[in-house]
Design goal:
It contains eleven helices and no strands. By secondary structure, the protein is an all-alpha fold. It is globular, with a radius of gyration of 17 Å.
């Protein structure tokens, strides 16, 4: 793969944003990396380059957030996500990437708008999500993550509805994506997505991983609880707009 200086700069920026998002915002903006990188390479190469980087970020995040995740939520989300990964692997190359991005973007924007319109409601007035809702979000995240590493919005829809402490929110998302990114690895190998060029590029970008994670944790430590959720909702909405734009105009 040949990329000019602008391509490397945009890719490096996308890696940093992904690290900040995964460790500070629950993965809301993690889906931006593949669309940015796809301006200089094929989407197949972009997802192949990103997967080892995402796994490295997850390993760093697990160490930082150990003991703070909500395992009850993970027991609901992870099995559903594994089903989504299998389905996404079967659909890879057959289903339009634009359709997937458009659908995910529409859901993310709709949920963000709903939270803005209902922000006056108390936490007690919000019912706990049903098991079927958790399964829908988990499966959707696994499916869209397999196709374009855009699994952040579906799982954020679920986690935001739980109104957890921000550390629990982020830690749960970190452990969730650690599992599903590792689970995607054998499917990507079987699909033949990895090659020498993608692996070399992944290795060259790995030094940015701890920088992005460190920046995200620093951001989280400086944001109070209420502004954090407002910011996370805004990030969810922005990522949804980007995905929706890619789906309609891509």
């Amino acid at each position: 793969m040949e990329m000019d200086l602008a391509g490397w700069l945009v890719t490096g920026f996308a890696i940093l944003i992904t690290g900040i998002s995964k460790s500070g915002l629950g993965g809301a903006l993690g889906g931006l990396a593949v669309p940015f990188m796809s301006m200089w390479m094929s989407p197949r190469d972009a997802v192949a380059v990103m997967l080892p980087i995402l796994i490295a970020m997850d390993m760093v995040g697990i160490r930082a957030w150990r003991g703070k995740a909500d395992w009850g939520d993970l027991k609901l989300l992870v099995p559903a996500a594994l089903v989504g990964i299998v389905t996404g692997s079967l659909a890879f190359g057959a289903m339009s990437e634009r359709m997937v991005k458009g659908a995910v973007g529409l859901i993310a924007v709709g949920f963000a708008l709903d939270r803005v319109l209902r922000r006056g409601r108390s936490a007690e007035a919000v019912e706990a999500p049903r098991r079927s809702f958790a399964w829908a979000c988990g499966a959707g995240s696994g499916f869209t993550s397999t196709l374009a590493h855009a699994g952040g919005p579906p799982v954020m829809v679920y986690l935001l509805s739980r109104r957890q402490p921000r550390e629990t929110f982020v830690a749960t998302s970190v452990f969730f994506f650690a599992v599903i990114n590792l689970a995607k690895l054998p499917f990507y190998v079987s699909l033949g997505l990895f090659n020498r060029d993608t692996l070399v590029m992944s290795a060259m970008l790995l030094p940015l991983v701890p920088v992005g994670v460190w920046m995200g944790m620093g951001l989280l430590a400086r944001i109070p609880e209420r502004p954090f959720y407002l910011f996370a909702t805004a990030a969810l909405g922005l990522s949804g707009v980007k995905l929706l734009w890619d789906g309609v105009m891509g």
